[in-house]
Write a structure and sequence with these properties.
By secondary structure, this protein is of the alpha+beta class. The chain has helices spanning about 35-45, 90-100, 110-115, and strands at about 5, 5-10, 20-25, 25, 75, 80, 105, 110, 120-125. The protein is globular, with a radius of gyration of 14 Å.
């Protein structure tokens, strides 16, 4: 692991009424390609008891592949950069903390994109690692 963010408490965006989420970002170095990396994330979710019942509904764990270096990937079941990360403070705030200077291919620096989602609540709780 190269870097991690603090733990962030954030309001859900979309979906049914539910409590706040806890979010964090980890920046990794891996020999896995994007698809095997995503498959590994999905297996971790299943092992933790995640059941996909309702889009954006409550869940035990949600692991997303946000970026893969500067790659742009559009394949069935795999979109990199993550397609909805640009409108979500709960993604951009911990990403900016864990990877200062990160750039989302085709969109720009994370710090600048973060300014566009100031209307969403995100509160830094603590360092978790």
């Amino acid at each position: 692991m190269l870097a991690t963010s603090s733990l962030w408490e954030t309001a859900p965006v979309g979906g049914p009424p539910q409590g706040d989420f806890l979010n964090a970002v980890a920046v990794l170095h891996t020999v896995l390609g994007p698809r095997p990396l995503l498959d590994g994330c999905l297996e971790i979710e299943r092992s933790a008891g995640r059941e996909r019942r309702e889009r954006w509904g409550p869940r035990v764990l949600d692991l997303d592949l946000l970026l893969y270096s500067d790659a742009v990937i559009a394949a069935p079941g795999l979109q990199v950069p993550h397609p909805r990360m640009l409108d979500r403070r709960f993604v951009l705030a911990p990403l900016a903390e864990a990877w200062p200077g990160a750039v989302i291919p085709g969109h720009g620096p994370v710090e600048e994109l973060l300014e566009a989602v100031v209307d969403q609540r995100a509160r830094r709780l603590a360092d978790i690692w």
